[in-house]
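Handout, tutorial session.
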Amino acid sequence: MSTATDPIIAGLKAADEASAGSQKLRYVDVGINLGDPVFRGIYHGKRAHDDDFELVLQRALEAGCRKFMVTGSDLTESEHAIELAKAHPGFCYATIGLHPCSAHQLDSHPASSGGATGYLSALQHLATGARVTGHAVAFGEIGLDYDRLYLSTREAQLSAFDRQLDVAAALGLPLFLHMRNAMEDFERVLRSSGEGEGEGDARQQPDGSKKDRSSDDNDGGGGDGGGNGGRKSESRWAQLQRHGGLVHSFTGSSDELARVLALGFDVGVNGCSLKTEENVEVVQQIPLARLQLETDGPWCEMRPSHAAARFLEGAPALPRAVKKEKWSKECMVKGRNEPCAIAQVAWAVAEIKGVPVEEVCEAAWNNSVRMFGLGETLEP
């Protein structure tokens, strides 16, 4: 079916056009797992309700979410993310990478398919093609997660992270990063190979601003056409700095925030970033110029028990949520976070920082477009 007759695309474009030019707040959900089966009504391999993917997207667009970065967590899910980007051009964009909790897939990849090297080559091939077409805007989700070593060992995660950074440096895409309780190794691996260490943020322009990728490629991710041109003598770290990146779903301490910012990365905030009083203090410290917003749905919802819940008074109301067994097309599903909830994340951040929500939304939108392109151009 062509995109011209696809009812999902038609509905999205109609809603988008209806809100265009208005003062309605707009959002980029920079981390949304739209490939998860729960958005098709399937939980733990069993169908619980109708496929409501289109309704999820429609609710998000009506809330002002105009762009969706669909997270790739392994080779299969990265392929799926690209399929969604192709099916919903101008709205959905993919990230491509191997999540640290799935790092064991490198060791288990069949020798007949090239083993770990074959897996990484497949990721690079996938990302290279999708970058050219504008369907992929970041390399990731990659990084380290020491809170869940029962899923992949520290050794497997370190190896996968290091080897994927080699791929990322060659691709010329911004990084989409994950870090849980692993700051020392996270920074060490990023800075390894070294001549670039201590050179500062290579994305900085002469006036101290960051490089604007939004005008590099209006069909999707920014960039210089795929790679590093004549800069192959640069260290890996210098190449990675030049293309920048985002540490998404940030839950670290104030010290870790300072280190992430010093590395030159932006910081993604969702419900998991707002659970505790310490989280609230850290979010207050994130400069607006380095903030991006996300839901990480279907996970990381904001809950009444979270410390940031007290900042939601007056926030935009979400549709009523019901148990999946009582599913209704007008309702959200309890325990399944959706991109429409990004409005509440933005509201909480604004209240925590003591600034208008419009200021938070516009800063986050500009930061995301500047870093990832997303088919948009920022005004000078």
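The second record follows below. Compare its token runs with those of the first.
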Amino acid sequence: MCVLTTKGEETSSDAPTPDLIFTHGAGGTLNSEAIADFVEGFASSGLAILCFQGNMNLRSRVKMFKAVVESQEGQVSRKCVGGRSMGARAAILAAPAETSHYVLISYPLHTDKQVRDEILLELPESAKVIFVSGDRDSMCEIHRLDAVREKMRCRTWRVVVEGADHGMTVKPKAGTKPVGLKTGEVVAGWLQGDYLGDGREGKIVWDGEAERAEWSGWA
């Protein structure tokens, strides 16, 4: 199943010009809270995001990702792929050579014993990569991510979501949706070129007193 979402509407996958092709994590679906909120925030910028449903097997997801990319040949306005958690790994493995931008949400960088950095280190120098991770994400500790970023050949940007776990849930629960929306908005802004300054790192924070998610901007 593929769904293309643009500002204010959801359409079938044959609608034109997606700006980002994206997939969910291993245990989730397109209706998962983290995906739905990200997609809504991204589309609110006026960009279009094409999401597809897959299963829990990485090899199968990569095959499906390649098929979706091929089906959109000549219709994608930006060479951009991405995913959440296992879906982020699938996006890298499936990306065609001409891919310019990678959106990696809650990238599962490590287990207790293993660091999954090989495919990140193989990305070409021309690529641009944005990581969005919670500072309570046990599968992507920020200091370990920064160590990998230093070794990568391409340019990378990092958004830390304060208080968020691997599922992008924050406490109190009331902050989860606004924070999820903000992650989509920030990634859309990055795709539209707001990263052109020197800043490579930013933070999203839930302001409980004001009841809104705040974006620091790039620093």
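Points raised in discussion: The CA atoms of residues 135 and 162 lie 6 Å apart.
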